[in-house]
Amino acid sequence: MFVLLFAHFIVATAALTVLKSRPRVSAVLGICVFVATIIATLQWGRTTDGVREVSFNWIGDLGLSLHLRLDSFAVMMVLIISVLGALVLAYSLAYFDPDETTARFTGFFIAFAGVMSGLVMSADLFTMFVFWELTSVLSFLLIGLHSESGHARASALRALLVTGAGGLCLLAGVALFQVELGTTSFQELANMAPTGTVITVAAILVLLGAFTKSAQFPFHFWLPGAMAAPTPVSAYLHSATMVKAGIVLMARMSPIFGDLDVWRWMVVVAGGITMVLGGVRAMYATDAKLLLAHSTVSQLGFLGILAGIGIPGATYAAVVHLAAHAVFKAALFLSVGAVDHAVGSRDIRTLSGVGRQMPLVAILATLSAASMAGIIPLFGFATKEKALAVLLKADDKVGAVGNVALAFVVVGAVLSTAYSVRFVRGVFGTKKDCAPSHVHHAPSFLLVAPVVLLSSASLIAGLFAKQTGHLFDAVATTLSPEATGKLALWPGVNTALIVSVIVVAVGAAIGYVFPLAATARELPVTGDKVYLSLLQGILTGSKKITKYTQNGSLQTYVVVTMGVVIATLMYSLATDQLPHFDNMVIADSPLQFGVVVLCIVLTGVVTFTAHRFVAALLLGGVGFAIAVIFALFGAPDLALTQILVETIVLVVFLLVLRQLPSKFERSIKGSARTAQIVFSVSVGLVVALFALLVGNSRQAPSVGEEYITRSSPQGGGNNVVNVILVDFRGVDTMGEITVLAVAALGVANLVNMARRQRKPKVVEASQ
Amino acid sequence: MSAALIVLIGVLFASGTFLLLQRSLTRIILGVGIMANAVNVLILSIGARAGEAPIIGRDGEFTDPVPQALVLTAIVIGFGITAFLLALAWRGWTIDGNDDVEDDDEDKRVASAKPLLGGTEVPGDYQ
Amino acid sequence: MNIALALPIAAPLLGAALSMLVKQLFIQRIISFVALGISLASSIVVVAKVVTDNDILVTRLGGWPAQIAITLVADRFAALMLIVSISIMALVLIYSIGQQASDEHSTAYHPVYLVLAAGLAQAFLAGDLFNLFVAFEMMLMASYVLLTLEGTNKQIRSGVTYVVLNVVESTILLLGIGLVFAATGTVSMAELPERLAALPDGVQMGLNLLLLVAFGIKAAVFPLYFWLPDSYPSAPSSMTAVFAGLLTKVGVYTIIRTETLLFPGGQSTLLIVVAGFTMIVGVVGAISHTQMKRVLSFHIVSQIGYMILGVGLGTQAALAATVFFVLHQIPVKTSIFLVEGIIEKETGSSAFDDIDGLAKRSGLLAVFFMLPALSLAGLPPFSGFVAKLGILRAGFDNGSYVITAVAIFGSLLTLISMIKIWMGLFWGEVRPTPPAGRVGIMRHHKIMSTTSITLVGVTLAIAVLAGPLYDYSVQAAEQLLNPMQYVKAVLGS
Amino acid sequence: MIGRRSVILTEADRWLFPVVLLVSVYITFRGHNAPGGGFIGGLIAGAAFIIRYLAGTPLTDRWHRALNPTTYIGAGLVIAVVTALVPLAYGDTLLESAIWKWNVPAIGEVKLVSSSIFDLGVYFLVIGVVLLSLMSLGADPVHDEEVGEES
């Protein structure tokens, strides 16, 4: 089984690399992998008790290990994924031309199936998160398959950002669980039955993650956009598999947290609104595929309520309806694809007479639509009956929220029937005022065969509802021990049936009457608008912030940097008592005082003069004055070095300046200049004060004393400073001469580059 | 500790900062030079006490040799940096005939451009 | 042991010296490879020794007692940084030869590049504050030269910003170190903890902050990062890759040292706040720009925020996560810049306006962009995810919910910025039209591609081997949080 | 070149140059015991070149060939680094210094400290740096040969 997971990725990689020019071969290989997976899964499902685990310890310290667990629920999901995967891939053989895009499609598709299988097999939240994010990335690539189209790019981005944001919520939840409880394993969480504020927050974060993935309100809007992807992608990712990831997560978590009121209310309200909203939007959609997309949203809302409400019976209903939905929705998408392929249009306002020309597809699609509408004797009927029956009794167990859920579901169910009718009418019906659509060619075998299989599955499962229901017993009890239930073709006349009949009747009537070309009033606030304005806001806000923080001006940068220095030093000065002036003398010697005064004067001139030469010369002057200060201080080496360095710098300065104009061009005047002066003076003041404070705080003796005692006997020299430089701290000197060498190389390099870049021009000029 | 030197440190830091804030690269280099001197005077005067040069055999109380060694290294490094900056100024001058430090083009362009996502405007068209 | 600790610094230095004496490109290349090879070999020895002895390695230069000698010290963290950075330097050297942009341009390239390597090694090993300053200067000077190697208008202009702000940084660092000496009478990092702790609060805080500001500029944290996005993009991609991967991390490294060894837990709140701003403002800049190199440069800043957050939280878990984050970040960041270099070499630009449809032209290129990009965005199962999760968990564990939420939000923005590059360069119709007969971008630029792929492979390996590497990080964090071990190892008991 | 050639400077240079070079070497070796050392010596020697340069004596022909500044820098760095590395071969640490003493007849005891060799490296390097900066920025940027490059 787990080997087969890897097989997915190997085939996917092959499809993207060596088999790039032969997408059909890789598709066939993919189908083989799917079939193998199906067989293996069934085998295990039968022979063992239904549970098989494997774990890969990734980082023990962080408690990160990938833990897969094949229980009955996972078996069901893997089967859905693989069966539909094989069918859709077969379908795609006929749907696409074998070009490079198809190769990419095939590769991504198979990889996606592998990742999705991993996701449903995850035994803990962390593992699920890992696969979760991968599905987001792969669906991004799949939606953006035709990246030339701006529409495709926008949709891919939307899907990625919404699910990505949800993924981060999930991640936060995972991290919280790991930190608080030390585990994210579903089983262990269930055993612990944890409570507490942080845990609740974590659970809600996880729930939000599930919402985004399963397109629950208010994150439902990305899903219709994702229909930009080619039809096989929509059929697979956005109806049968990826969007179910959230439902899977909710189904796994609700036995643990379903009792939390917040959880329950969030699930019911979000799911309910999703169900109704999706239904309404489906009534207004004119693109058949978009209609199905909105219907998917609606059904996901339904599934969300069932999976998340935390009633065992509902969990059972969720499981069976999940299967039913996967089967009928995939069939519907594929049939739309077949029509689109044959006619070249999906617009239900203009399609006309398709049903007559493509009777087989029409019948099959109608069957599946009937299952979606919940009409007897199809699979969808049985599952919806079960759900209604559970929800009718829900208020006994969970109180008011059960009634709210019921209300939403009833309204949603009416809409389901309505849009199912609308779908069939729109796609296959004959419209009086429309010219019959032209069917270019009959759909090929591979386009129809998967639909045949899926639609008849809906029918058979419906007809043998009781037996089918048994198949799911083990599945549901894996999730929650009490989650047992039965399906029936004919439940007998009870409240649920009566409700159901009314629902179907009303729904059908609405669906029949409702105009096909109806346009919805634009809502002032939609999820999509919010998303767009948020994204726009992020972009604009980013730009605004960046405009201020990164204005490209060196002056600003220096001001901020020095400003930080002042601020930190002032803060530090404020924490201590101000420096004291105990052992302070005016100057160490009168000569020192004189030189300092001279130095200050020279500095002033350097600062404010408008003449380059004067400034450079007097900078040298400042340097010489400081050399005198060094000498007076007892630092002859320093003084000598300073004098020589200043001399050479002065010469280099003059060499450069001879090329520049003699005066500085402009300098800021007025208040800006005053501000600069005030700022600079405060830098000087604060640094000097802090230096004073530090100077008074020495307690330990300097390491210098040690150097003085060791210099002559061990260092072999009397000039301690020199011995420090070449011996005690010789590495510093080694580094420093390297710096010098590199600087010189840099200077030479700049000059050489200038020559090299100028030479051609000179040659041109001389020619 | 000598008050005169503390004042000198303050003045040098202030002057250096002021020069760093100017647009002309030449003045910035002057600022770098003055700042370097400021730090050097600071290290020497705060880190040690004036005294006799630390050369074994001389009389008197030696001043601490360590700050001297540190400052010496710093002076030499400063020399390298100044030389390189001067070469930059020179090169800048040969390129565009002035030594002003201009604002960054790309930053300016981005500040005035529309916010874009991947080269296109935010795409919101799917229906 | 003395040799193993000395050679990572000395070998490249000798190589640089010899390289200046020869002008033949071929010989220069050989010298560089041999020098970096020796350096790498000895850093492997260092790491092996650190792991097997489970102790801190010390060498006292000049054979003087530890109190007065400059020491080279390698604990787990330093050894890790050493080996990672030297490997990256060696790999990028190969790349830059394939790029035909740098060493064929100027004979200064090889010596300067080797000095950069030596400076890096010295910065990681330095057990002496002033020696650290010198190491910084070696790196900085080398980076000034490398950044302006081609001497183009753009490089000069951004070079000025880079040089001036880094000179300001040097000045502040020197000021800080000078004052540390003035207050304590020593610059030995082993002697300092005790002496610093004895100082009055205000002095301690001021010194701590001064060092943090200087290292913060180096690490490019908010609000001291401005120089980075303006200057890095103008260098040749191989240089940007090295700078991006390594130089800022030296800043992070020194911040960690400051906050664990010199001033344990000194400024944790401040660091957390700074980290939050750095994460957001950096990535916000990335979102606003429309040139891959710029986006990535801003992105460096943002990621630094995560590392600083780890330092600010200061728990062992947080520091372990930070060590791992740094370990992951260096190769990933470098590799994505290397991929950028291929794009730039092929199309002459990395601006979204100029290029489209790269994924169609070269699927391989797309994959090798996507892998590090997803890792940077922190998606599983890549190394960036482990690093991010580690930080988030440490944040939650510490009860710092707000900053952790900010970090999570930041990672959404990061995803946007990466997708922005993807949408800007890789999707859409192919543009500009490839030259006729071009086999494939990656195949055309063999050396660059091979090195990039190797490095991306390394990043994947980090994800796969995250277990043992994380263990290593945890132990490194343990050492960091126990400064007495460092002091003891250096000074003896 | 700056301005025209000055006769006085040229004459002064002819006599001063060798003297200053000698002084610089003396200062370098004296540095271990009195103010001086490799830096100061190197800078003084550099100053000698500056005088020569200001005097207008061309640095580019004879001097250029004989004394490529990059070679000075490289050689200086090699000397310094090798001096630092040698002790490693004896199992000591980087930069460990040794003191050799010889009794030379007639002169008496001659002491050589290995770190003086290190200082000599510094000396050469500094000369090279001064020379290279001077030649680069001092030369005519358009017509002259590239500095430090084999062309």
From TrEMBL, chain A:
Keywords: Antiport, Cell membrane, Ion transport, Membrane, Transmembrane, Transmembrane helix, Transport. This is Unannotated protein. One of its GO terms (molecular function) is antiporter activity. Residues 597-661 form the MrpA C-terminal/MbhD domain. Residues 59-105 form the NADH-Ubiquinone oxidoreductase (complex I) chain 5 N-terminal domain. GO terms for biological process: monoatomic ion transport. Residues 122-401 form the NADH:quinone oxidoreductase/Mrp antiporter transmembrane domain. The keyword Membrane applies. Signal peptide: none annotated. It is a multi-pass membrane protein. Residues 673-755 form the MrpA C-terminal/MbhE domain. It is found in: Cell membrane. It comes from freshwater metagenome. GO terms for cellular component: plasma membrane. The keyword Manganese does not apply. The lineage of its organism: unclassified sequences, metagenomes, ecological metagenomes. The chain crosses the membrane at residues 24-42, 73-96, 108-134, 155-177, 189-212, 263-284, 291-311, 317-339, 360-380, 400-424, 445-465, 495-514, 554-574, 586-606, 613-633, 639-657, 677-695, 733-751. InterPro entries: CPA3_Na-H_Antiporter_A, MrpA_C/MbhD, MrpA_C/MbhE, ND/Mrp_TM, Nuo/plastoQ_OxRdtase_6_NuoJ, Proton_antipo_N.
Automatic annotation (TrEMBL), chain B:
The chain crosses the membrane at residues 29-48, 69-90. Residues 98-127 are annotated as: Disordered. This is Unannotated protein. It is found in: Cell membrane. Gene3D superfamilies: 1.10.287.3510. Signal peptide: none annotated. The keyword Secreted does not apply. It is a multi-pass membrane protein. PANTHER family: ANTIPORTER SUBUNIT MNHC2-RELATED. Its main location: membrane. One of its GO terms (cellular component) is plasma membrane. InterPro entries: CPA3_antiporter_subunitC (IPR050601), NUOK/Mnh_C1-like (IPR039428). It comes from freshwater metagenome.
From TrEMBL, chain C:
Its main location: membrane. It is found in: Cell membrane. This is Unannotated protein. The keyword Transmembrane applies. Residues 126-414 form the NADH:quinone oxidoreductase/Mrp antiporter transmembrane domain. Keywords: Cell membrane, Membrane, Transmembrane, Transmembrane helix. It is a multi-pass membrane protein. The chain crosses the membrane at residues 29-51, 77-96, 108-125, 161-184, 205-226, 238-256, 268-292, 304-327, 364-382, 402-427, 447-470. InterPro entries: CPA3_Na-H_Antiporter_D, ND/Mrp_TM. One of its GO terms (cellular component) is plasma membrane.
Automatic annotation (TrEMBL), chain D:
It is found in: Cell membrane. It comes from freshwater metagenome. It is a multi-pass membrane protein. Keywords: Cell membrane, Membrane, Transmembrane, Transmembrane helix. This is Unannotated protein. GO terms for cellular component: plasma membrane. The chain crosses the membrane at residues 12-29, 35-55, 67-90, 110-134. Residues 11-131 form the Na+/H+ antiporter MnhB subunit-related protein domain.
